[in-house]
Design goal:
Layout: H1 5-25
Length: about 25
């Protein structure tokens, strides 16, 4: 369970990182 905007921002950043990695490896 998340209780703050920091966690959400962290999740968004991770999603962006994963997308970039997929572009590089794909």
């Amino acid at each position: 369970m998340y209780c703050g905007g920091e966690d959400k921002r962290k999740e968004e950043g991770t999603e962006k990182l994963v997308q970039v990695q997929n572009l590089i490896t794909g």
